[in-house]
Here is the input.
Amino acid sequence: MTTGAGNGIGRAITMHFHALGWRVIGLDKDAEALAELRDTLPRENALFLTADVGREGAVGEAFARIAEWLGEAALDCLVNNAGIADPYAGPLEDLDLADWQAWIDASLTAAFLVTRAALPFLERSPGASIANISSTRAVMSEPDTFAYAAAKGGLDALTHSLAVSLGPTIRANAIRPGWIETAPWQKKGSRSDPDHRPKDREQHPVGRIGRPEDIAEAVAYLHEAGFVSGQHLNIDGGMTARMIYEH
Here is the structure.
């Protein structure tokens, strides 16, 4: 099950697991994006629900439908991916509390609400795992990304708390994407094929910018890695390991 499943990283994760033969569940606020996925995947193997996972009532309504769809089956893997993609809030003195709260709710509060609701279904599985999609901005910042960085830092902390509290039945890990180009994985009306500059690629020791598929593969790895829990995995092409000086 993936939140923020309609576009970008969430879309790639959903498609990746479906290609592996899984039954998949996707939640997103974007009904149009979910409709595209619904038309792509067989109904018997996929459930897509429009929901604002930062709102307690919406999560409750979604899980009532999920419980019906699952029946007695387990939820094996939960991916908390929802969040506001744009990290830039502008100057601190201009940041409204409501805007701050929107970033926090979309990512951190949503992960709490969804994980709490999913817990009874995860506990049915002999090898359940949770993957929280954090960000390299949890540990390093660009200017004016206060709320986004705080939300992702909180998600990192929630991850190790979940690992300690829910183990050994359920493992929890965080993935910190770096620069991931999501434009080709948007819904049709927002999709594009970006042209990156050589200096963009050169920031990464691997020589390229990340793709949503890279994150999907990491989620699949962590689900199978039975001795890995409470960890925070940077998937950034080595960018955060490289010292960059301005000349």
Q: What stands out?
A: The first strand starts at residue 2 and ends at 3.
